[in-house]
Amino acid sequence: MGCCVVDKEAELKRLMLRGLDGDPVAWRALLTEMRGALTPFFKRRLTGCEADAEDLVQDCLIAIHAKRATYDRSLPFTAWAYAIARYKLIDHFRRQGRRHDVPLEEASVLLADHTVEDGVVRRDLKKVLSILPLRQRRLIEDVRVGGFSLAEAAQRNGFTEGAAKVSVHRSMKTLVASVNPNED
Amino acid sequence: MKTDDLIDALAAGIEPVRPARLDPALLSWAGGAAAVAVILLLGARSDLTQALQAPTPWLKAIYTAALAQTAIWLATRLGRPGLDPRPALFALLAVVGIAVAWGGIETVLTPPDQRMAGWLGQTWDICGRNILLVSAFAAPVVFLSARRLAPTRPTAAGLALGLATGGIAATAYGLLHCGEATAAFVATWYTLGVAAAGLIGAAVGRFALRW
Fold first, then answer.
1. Which of B180, B184, B164 is nearest to B99 (CA)?
2. Domain A2-114 falls in which CATH fold?
3. Chain A residues inside the 8 Å CB shell of B6
4. Residue A114: is its pLDDT beyond 70?
5. What's the confidence (pLDDT) of residue A140?
6. Is any Cβ of chain B less than 8 angstroms from the Cβ of A57?
7. Coil, strand, or helix at residue A60?
8. What is each CA distance from B58 to A8, A177, B7, B63, B171, in whole angstroms?
9. pLDDT mean across residues, chain B
10. Which ranges does the record mark as transmembrane (chain B) (predicted)?
11. Does residue B38 sit within a domain?
Protein backbone atom coordinates (compact mmCIF):
# COMPACT_ATOMS: atom_id res chain seq x y z
CA MET A 1 0.00 0.00 0.00
CA GLY A 2 2.86 2.35 0.87
CA CYS A 3 4.00 2.89 -2.70
CA CYS A 4 0.49 3.58 -3.99
CA VAL A 5 -0.15 6.21 -1.35
CA VAL A 6 3.17 7.82 -2.20
CA ASP A 7 2.34 7.81 -5.94
CA LYS A 8 -1.08 9.20 -5.20
CA GLU A 9 0.37 11.93 -3.00
CA ALA A 10 2.81 13.00 -5.73
CA GLU A 11 0.00 13.10 -8.27
CA LEU A 12 -2.35 15.08 -6.03
CA LYS A 13 0.36 17.54 -5.04
CA ARG A 14 1.17 18.14 -8.71
CA LEU A 15 -2.49 18.85 -9.41
CA MET A 16 -2.69 21.11 -6.34
CA LEU A 17 0.31 23.20 -7.38
CA ARG A 18 -1.12 23.62 -10.86
CA GLY A 19 -4.49 24.51 -9.35
CA LEU A 20 -2.84 27.19 -7.21
CA ASP A 21 -1.51 28.71 -10.43
CA GLY A 22 -5.07 28.78 -11.77
CA ASP A 23 -5.17 25.70 -14.02
CA PRO A 24 -8.88 24.70 -14.27
CA VAL A 25 -8.18 21.27 -15.79
CA ALA A 26 -5.85 20.24 -12.98
CA TRP A 27 -8.25 21.71 -10.43
CA ARG A 28 -11.16 19.74 -11.81
CA ALA A 29 -9.07 16.56 -11.72
CA LEU A 30 -8.02 17.27 -8.14
CA LEU A 31 -11.57 17.92 -6.94
CA THR A 32 -12.74 14.75 -8.66
CA GLU A 33 -9.96 12.72 -7.03
CA MET A 34 -10.77 14.27 -3.66
CA ARG A 35 -14.42 13.46 -4.07
CA GLY A 36 -13.44 9.84 -4.59
CA ALA A 37 -11.24 9.87 -1.49
CA LEU A 38 -13.56 11.88 0.76
CA THR A 39 -16.74 9.90 0.12
CA PRO A 40 -15.53 6.63 1.71
CA PHE A 41 -13.63 8.64 4.35
CA PHE A 42 -16.82 10.30 5.61
CA LYS A 43 -19.10 7.29 5.06
CA ARG A 44 -16.85 5.16 7.23
CA ARG A 45 -16.89 7.75 10.00
CA LEU A 46 -20.62 8.50 9.91
CA THR A 47 -22.08 5.13 10.72
CA GLY A 48 -25.81 5.51 11.07
CA CYS A 49 -26.07 8.76 9.10
CA GLU A 50 -24.27 8.02 5.84
CA ALA A 51 -26.73 10.36 4.11
CA ASP A 52 -24.81 13.30 5.60
CA ALA A 53 -21.63 12.12 3.90
CA GLU A 54 -22.56 13.67 0.56
CA ASP A 55 -23.17 17.06 2.23
CA LEU A 56 -19.85 16.83 4.03
CA VAL A 57 -18.05 15.91 0.81
CA GLN A 58 -19.50 19.00 -0.87
CA ASP A 59 -18.68 21.14 2.15
CA CYS A 60 -15.12 19.87 2.07
CA LEU A 61 -14.71 20.40 -1.68
CA ILE A 62 -15.89 23.98 -1.24
CA ALA A 63 -13.41 24.43 1.63
CA ILE A 64 -10.57 22.95 -0.45
CA HIS A 65 -11.45 25.43 -3.16
CA ALA A 66 -12.07 28.52 -1.02
CA LYS A 67 -9.13 27.93 1.33
CA ARG A 68 -6.62 26.69 -1.26
CA ALA A 69 -4.36 29.65 -0.48
CA THR A 70 -3.73 28.18 2.98
CA TYR A 71 -1.90 25.21 1.47
CA ASP A 72 1.78 25.34 2.40
CA ARG A 73 3.81 24.21 -0.59
CA SER A 74 6.41 22.58 1.62
CA LEU A 75 3.81 20.18 3.06
CA PRO A 76 2.41 16.97 1.62
CA PHE A 77 -0.93 17.70 -0.02
CA THR A 78 -2.50 14.84 1.91
CA ALA A 79 -1.61 16.39 5.28
CA TRP A 80 -3.43 19.58 4.31
CA ALA A 81 -6.48 17.85 2.87
CA TYR A 82 -6.72 15.47 5.82
CA ALA A 83 -6.62 18.38 8.30
CA ILE A 84 -9.50 20.04 6.42
CA ALA A 85 -11.54 16.83 6.23
CA ARG A 86 -11.04 16.14 9.93
CA TYR A 87 -11.98 19.72 10.82
CA LYS A 88 -15.17 19.49 8.77
CA LEU A 89 -16.05 16.20 10.43
CA ILE A 90 -15.51 17.63 13.94
CA ASP A 91 -17.52 20.70 12.98
CA HIS A 92 -20.33 18.47 11.70
CA PHE A 93 -20.52 16.57 14.98
CA ARG A 94 -20.43 19.81 16.97
CA ARG A 95 -23.28 21.28 14.96
CA GLN A 96 -25.32 18.21 15.72
CA GLY A 97 -24.62 18.77 19.39
CA ARG A 98 -22.89 15.45 19.62
CA ARG A 99 -19.72 15.10 21.60
CA HIS A 100 -17.66 12.90 19.41
CA ASP A 101 -13.98 12.18 19.49
CA VAL A 102 -12.30 12.24 16.13
CA PRO A 103 -8.94 10.60 16.72
CA LEU A 104 -5.97 12.18 15.02
CA GLU A 105 -4.81 9.62 12.48
CA GLU A 106 -2.07 9.47 9.92
CA ALA A 107 -3.04 11.81 7.09
CA SER A 108 -2.59 8.94 4.64
CA VAL A 109 -5.88 7.35 5.81
CA LEU A 110 -7.53 9.84 3.51
CA LEU A 111 -6.03 8.03 0.56
CA ALA A 112 -5.92 4.63 2.21
CA ASP A 113 -9.71 4.43 2.46
CA HIS A 114 -9.87 5.04 -1.21
CA THR A 115 -7.10 2.82 -2.45
CA VAL A 116 -6.73 0.10 0.11
CA GLU A 117 -8.62 -2.61 -1.77
CA ASP A 118 -8.11 -1.46 -5.34
CA GLY A 119 -4.54 -0.51 -4.82
CA VAL A 120 -3.32 -3.53 -2.93
CA VAL A 121 -5.02 -6.00 -5.23
CA ARG A 122 -3.77 -4.28 -8.34
CA ARG A 123 -0.24 -4.07 -7.04
CA ASP A 124 -0.18 -7.69 -5.92
CA LEU A 125 -1.60 -8.81 -9.21
CA LYS A 126 1.05 -6.89 -11.08
CA LYS A 127 3.78 -8.40 -8.95
CA VAL A 128 2.48 -11.93 -9.41
CA LEU A 129 1.99 -11.55 -13.16
CA SER A 130 5.48 -10.14 -13.59
CA ILE A 131 6.99 -13.63 -13.36
CA LEU A 132 5.38 -14.59 -16.68
CA PRO A 133 6.95 -13.97 -20.09
CA LEU A 134 5.52 -10.81 -21.64
CA ARG A 135 3.37 -12.43 -24.30
CA GLN A 136 1.81 -14.89 -21.88
CA ARG A 137 1.27 -12.12 -19.37
CA ARG A 138 -0.62 -9.94 -21.83
CA LEU A 139 -2.77 -12.89 -22.78
CA ILE A 140 -3.70 -13.70 -19.22
CA GLU A 141 -4.33 -10.05 -18.38
CA ASP A 142 -6.73 -9.82 -21.29
CA VAL A 143 -8.59 -12.97 -20.34
CA ARG A 144 -8.66 -12.73 -16.56
CA VAL A 145 -8.52 -8.95 -15.92
CA GLY A 146 -9.48 -7.23 -19.15
CA GLY A 147 -12.64 -9.25 -19.67
CA PHE A 148 -11.90 -10.40 -23.23
CA SER A 149 -13.08 -13.78 -24.46
CA LEU A 150 -10.39 -16.40 -25.07
CA ALA A 151 -10.84 -16.04 -28.83
CA GLU A 152 -10.50 -12.26 -28.75
CA ALA A 153 -7.53 -12.37 -26.45
CA ALA A 154 -5.82 -14.97 -28.60
CA GLN A 155 -6.26 -12.79 -31.66
CA ARG A 156 -5.05 -9.64 -29.88
CA ASN A 157 -1.86 -11.37 -28.81
CA GLY A 158 -1.22 -13.45 -31.95
CA PHE A 159 -2.07 -16.89 -30.59
CA THR A 160 -4.28 -19.50 -32.18
CA GLU A 161 -7.20 -20.22 -29.93
CA GLY A 162 -5.89 -23.66 -29.06
CA ALA A 163 -2.43 -22.33 -28.21
CA ALA A 164 -4.01 -19.57 -26.13
CA LYS A 165 -5.99 -22.10 -24.15
CA VAL A 166 -2.86 -24.10 -23.39
CA SER A 167 -0.91 -20.93 -22.55
CA VAL A 168 -3.55 -19.68 -20.13
CA HIS A 169 -3.72 -23.08 -18.49
CA ARG A 170 0.05 -23.21 -18.07
CA SER A 171 0.25 -19.65 -16.88
CA MET A 172 -2.38 -20.25 -14.24
CA LYS A 173 -0.46 -23.29 -13.05
CA THR A 174 2.76 -21.26 -12.82
CA LEU A 175 1.00 -18.44 -11.02
CA VAL A 176 -0.70 -20.71 -8.51
CA ALA A 177 2.59 -22.43 -7.83
CA SER A 178 4.31 -19.08 -7.31
CA VAL A 179 1.72 -17.94 -4.79
CA ASN A 180 1.60 -21.28 -2.92
CA PRO A 181 5.21 -22.41 -2.87
CA ASN A 182 4.33 -25.46 -0.71
CA GLU A 183 2.23 -27.05 -3.37
CA ASP A 184 4.91 -28.29 -5.74
CA MET B 1 -26.70 20.66 -5.87
CA LYS B 2 -25.16 17.63 -7.49
CA THR B 3 -21.51 17.09 -6.59
CA ASP B 4 -20.58 16.86 -10.28
CA ASP B 5 -22.10 20.28 -10.94
CA LEU B 6 -20.36 21.66 -7.88
CA ILE B 7 -16.97 20.44 -9.13
CA ASP B 8 -17.64 21.94 -12.56
CA ALA B 9 -18.63 25.28 -11.03
CA LEU B 10 -15.60 25.42 -8.73
CA ALA B 11 -13.12 24.43 -11.45
CA ALA B 12 -14.58 26.97 -13.87
CA GLY B 13 -14.04 29.81 -11.40
CA ILE B 14 -10.45 29.11 -10.39
CA GLU B 15 -7.88 31.90 -10.28
CA PRO B 16 -4.23 31.92 -9.24
CA VAL B 17 -3.75 32.63 -5.52
CA ARG B 18 -0.90 33.77 -3.30
CA PRO B 19 -0.22 31.97 -0.01
CA ALA B 20 -2.69 33.07 2.67
CA ARG B 21 -1.50 35.12 5.64
CA LEU B 22 -2.82 37.75 8.01
CA ASP B 23 -3.60 40.77 5.84
CA PRO B 24 -0.67 43.19 6.51
CA ALA B 25 -2.70 46.27 5.55
CA LEU B 26 -5.37 45.42 8.12
CA LEU B 27 -2.68 44.74 10.73
CA SER B 28 -1.34 48.27 10.22
CA TRP B 29 -4.88 49.54 10.60
CA ALA B 30 -5.06 47.64 13.89
CA GLY B 31 -1.90 49.43 15.02
CA GLY B 32 -3.46 52.75 14.05
CA ALA B 33 -6.68 51.90 15.88
CA ALA B 34 -4.69 51.05 19.01
CA ALA B 35 -2.76 54.36 18.86
CA VAL B 36 -5.96 56.36 18.40
CA ALA B 37 -7.63 54.49 21.27
CA VAL B 38 -4.69 55.25 23.60
CA ILE B 39 -4.71 58.96 22.72
CA LEU B 40 -8.50 59.44 22.84
CA LEU B 41 -9.34 57.26 25.84
CA LEU B 42 -6.24 57.47 28.02
CA GLY B 43 -4.44 60.53 26.70
CA ALA B 44 -0.84 60.82 25.50
CA ARG B 45 1.76 61.29 28.25
CA SER B 46 2.54 64.95 28.77
CA ASP B 47 6.29 64.51 28.22
CA LEU B 48 5.83 62.43 25.08
CA THR B 49 8.41 64.09 22.80
CA GLN B 50 11.16 64.03 25.42
CA ALA B 51 10.27 60.53 26.61
CA LEU B 52 10.58 59.07 23.12
CA GLN B 53 14.17 60.31 22.91
CA ALA B 54 15.18 57.93 25.72
CA PRO B 55 15.74 54.22 24.98
CA THR B 56 13.32 52.86 27.62
CA PRO B 57 9.97 53.26 25.78
CA TRP B 58 11.56 51.72 22.70
CA LEU B 59 12.88 48.75 24.66
CA LYS B 60 9.36 48.18 25.96
CA ALA B 61 8.06 48.50 22.41
CA ILE B 62 10.61 45.98 21.14
CA TYR B 63 9.34 43.45 23.67
CA THR B 64 5.62 43.97 23.01
CA ALA B 65 6.13 44.18 19.24
CA ALA B 66 8.09 40.90 19.40
CA LEU B 67 5.13 39.40 21.27
CA ALA B 68 2.78 40.64 18.55
CA GLN B 69 5.09 39.41 15.78
CA THR B 70 5.48 35.88 17.17
CA ALA B 71 1.75 35.71 17.94
CA ILE B 72 1.01 36.70 14.32
CA TRP B 73 3.35 33.96 13.16
CA LEU B 74 1.57 31.50 15.48
CA ALA B 75 -1.84 32.55 14.16
CA THR B 76 -0.63 32.15 10.58
CA ARG B 77 0.69 28.65 11.22
CA LEU B 78 -2.52 27.69 13.04
CA GLY B 79 -4.46 29.05 10.09
CA ARG B 80 -2.81 26.73 7.57
CA PRO B 81 -4.21 23.20 7.93
CA GLY B 82 -1.68 20.48 8.62
CA LEU B 83 1.12 22.85 9.62
CA ASP B 84 2.85 22.30 12.98
CA PRO B 85 2.34 25.46 15.11
CA ARG B 86 5.05 24.59 17.64
CA PRO B 87 8.00 26.53 16.15
CA ALA B 88 5.97 29.74 16.49
CA LEU B 89 4.80 28.77 19.97
CA PHE B 90 8.40 28.20 21.10
CA ALA B 91 9.42 31.56 19.64
CA LEU B 92 6.61 33.29 21.54
CA LEU B 93 7.58 31.58 24.80
CA ALA B 94 11.24 32.45 24.19
CA VAL B 95 10.33 36.15 23.85
CA VAL B 96 8.46 36.01 27.18
CA GLY B 97 11.32 34.05 28.73
CA ILE B 98 13.90 36.66 27.72
CA ALA B 99 11.77 39.49 29.16
CA VAL B 100 11.16 37.63 32.42
CA ALA B 101 14.88 36.81 32.76
CA TRP B 102 15.78 40.43 32.05
CA GLY B 103 13.27 41.62 34.65
CA GLY B 104 14.60 39.09 37.16
CA ILE B 105 18.25 40.11 36.67
CA GLU B 106 17.31 43.78 36.90
CA THR B 107 15.44 43.14 40.16
CA VAL B 108 18.37 41.24 41.66
CA LEU B 109 20.67 44.15 40.80
CA THR B 110 18.27 46.65 42.45
CA PRO B 111 18.80 47.47 46.15
CA PRO B 112 16.37 45.29 48.16
CA ASP B 113 14.39 48.20 49.59
CA GLN B 114 13.57 49.55 46.10
CA ARG B 115 12.65 46.23 44.49
CA MET B 116 8.97 46.26 45.38
CA ALA B 117 8.50 49.86 44.23
CA GLY B 118 10.23 49.10 40.91
CA TRP B 119 8.15 45.99 40.32
CA LEU B 120 4.76 47.55 41.13
CA GLY B 121 5.50 51.02 39.76
CA GLN B 122 2.67 53.54 39.99
CA THR B 123 0.21 51.76 37.75
CA TRP B 124 0.52 47.98 38.21
CA ASP B 125 -3.17 47.72 39.07
CA ILE B 126 -4.44 49.48 35.92
CA CYS B 127 -1.83 48.36 33.36
CA GLY B 128 -3.58 45.14 32.37
CA ARG B 129 -6.98 46.80 32.29
CA ASN B 130 -5.70 49.57 30.00
CA ILE B 131 -4.10 47.07 27.62
CA LEU B 132 -7.41 45.19 27.44
CA LEU B 133 -9.31 48.41 26.80
CA VAL B 134 -7.04 49.35 23.88
CA SER B 135 -7.13 45.75 22.63
CA ALA B 136 -10.91 45.93 22.36
CA PHE B 137 -10.51 48.56 19.62
CA ALA B 138 -7.77 46.76 17.70
CA ALA B 139 -9.24 43.26 18.00
CA PRO B 140 -11.99 43.42 15.32
CA VAL B 141 -9.44 44.51 12.71
CA VAL B 142 -6.94 41.83 13.76
CA PHE B 143 -9.61 39.11 13.57
CA LEU B 144 -10.73 40.47 10.20
CA SER B 145 -7.16 40.24 8.90
CA ALA B 146 -7.30 36.46 9.46
CA ARG B 147 -10.36 35.81 7.35
CA ARG B 148 -8.45 34.13 4.51
CA LEU B 149 -6.94 31.56 6.87
CA ALA B 150 -8.49 28.22 7.74
CA PRO B 151 -7.81 27.50 11.42
CA THR B 152 -8.62 23.88 12.20
CA ARG B 153 -8.33 24.75 15.91
CA PRO B 154 -10.41 27.93 16.26
CA THR B 155 -9.82 28.30 20.01
CA ALA B 156 -6.04 28.12 19.66
CA ALA B 157 -6.10 30.46 16.67
CA GLY B 158 -8.28 32.87 18.69
CA LEU B 159 -5.69 32.74 21.47
CA ALA B 160 -2.93 33.61 19.01
CA LEU B 161 -4.94 36.48 17.49
CA GLY B 162 -5.80 37.73 20.99
CA LEU B 163 -2.11 37.71 21.93
CA ALA B 164 -1.28 39.54 18.70
CA THR B 165 -3.94 42.13 19.50
CA GLY B 166 -2.63 42.48 23.04
CA GLY B 167 0.93 42.90 21.73
CA ILE B 168 -0.15 45.65 19.33
CA ALA B 169 -2.21 47.39 22.03
CA ALA B 170 0.61 47.14 24.59
CA THR B 171 3.07 48.63 22.09
CA ALA B 172 0.85 51.67 21.54
CA TYR B 173 0.16 51.95 25.27
CA GLY B 174 3.83 51.63 26.24
CA LEU B 175 5.01 54.21 23.73
CA LEU B 176 2.27 56.82 24.02
CA HIS B 177 0.85 56.64 27.53
CA CYS B 178 2.61 54.51 30.12
CA GLY B 179 5.60 55.98 31.95
CA GLU B 180 6.71 52.81 33.73
CA ALA B 181 10.34 52.07 33.02
CA THR B 182 11.50 48.93 34.84
CA ALA B 183 11.94 45.62 33.03
CA ALA B 184 10.36 43.78 35.96
CA PHE B 185 7.20 45.88 35.59
CA VAL B 186 6.95 45.30 31.84
CA ALA B 187 7.78 41.60 32.06
CA THR B 188 5.03 41.11 34.64
CA TRP B 189 2.13 43.49 34.09
CA TYR B 190 2.41 43.99 30.33
CA THR B 191 2.76 40.25 29.88
CA LEU B 192 -0.31 39.62 32.04
CA GLY B 193 -2.33 42.19 30.08
CA VAL B 194 -1.35 40.61 26.77
CA ALA B 195 -2.10 37.14 28.17
CA ALA B 196 -5.56 38.29 29.26
CA ALA B 197 -6.19 39.60 25.75
CA GLY B 198 -5.13 36.17 24.48
CA LEU B 199 -7.62 34.39 26.75
CA ILE B 200 -10.48 36.62 25.61
CA GLY B 201 -9.35 36.02 22.02
CA ALA B 202 -9.51 32.26 22.62
CA ALA B 203 -13.10 32.51 23.87
CA VAL B 204 -14.08 34.67 20.89
CA GLY B 205 -12.16 32.59 18.35
CA ARG B 206 -13.96 29.44 19.36
CA PHE B 207 -17.07 30.86 17.69
CA ALA B 208 -15.85 33.66 15.43
CA LEU B 209 -13.15 31.71 13.60
CA ARG B 210 -15.23 28.75 12.43
CA TRP B 211 -15.42 28.37 8.68
1. B184
2. Rna Polymerase Sigma Factor; Chain: A (1.10.1740)
3. 58, 61-62
4. no
5. 82
6. yes
7. helix
8. 52, 81, 53, 9, 9
9. 94
10. 26-46, 58-76, 88-109, 129-146, 158-176, 188-209
11. no
In a domain, B146, yes or no: yes
CB contact under 8 A, B3 and A61: yes
Closest-CA distance, A67 to chain B, in angstroms, reads 6
Q: Do residues A114 and A1 touch, judged by C-beta distance below 8 A?
A: no
| Segment 17-36 of chain A within 8 Å of chain B by CB | 19-25, 27-28, 31-32, 35
Confidence band, pLDDT 50/70/90 cuts, at residue A3: low
Domain membership flag for residue B27: no
- Residue A1 is predicted with a pLDDT of 47
CB contact under 8 A, B10 and A19: no
- Mean pLDDT throughout A42-51? 82
Euclidean distance between CA atoms B179 and B166, whole angstroms: 18
Q: What is the pTM of this model?
A: 0.78
Among residues of chain B, what percentage have pLDDT more than 70?
100
Q: From CA A74, how far away is CA A160, in angstroms rounded?
A: 55
Question: Domain A131-183 belongs to what topology?
Answer: Arc Repressor Mutant, subunit A (1.10.10)
ipTM: 0.86
Residue B20 inside a domain? The answer is: no
* Distance between CA atoms of residues A120 and B69, nearest Å: 48
Is residue B186 a contact partner of residue B63, using CB atoms and an 8 Å limit?
A: yes
Q: What is the DSSP letter of B19?
A: P
Q: Where are the domains of chain A?
A: 2-114, 131-183
Provide the pLDDT for residue A70: 96
Domain extent at residue B134: 54-208
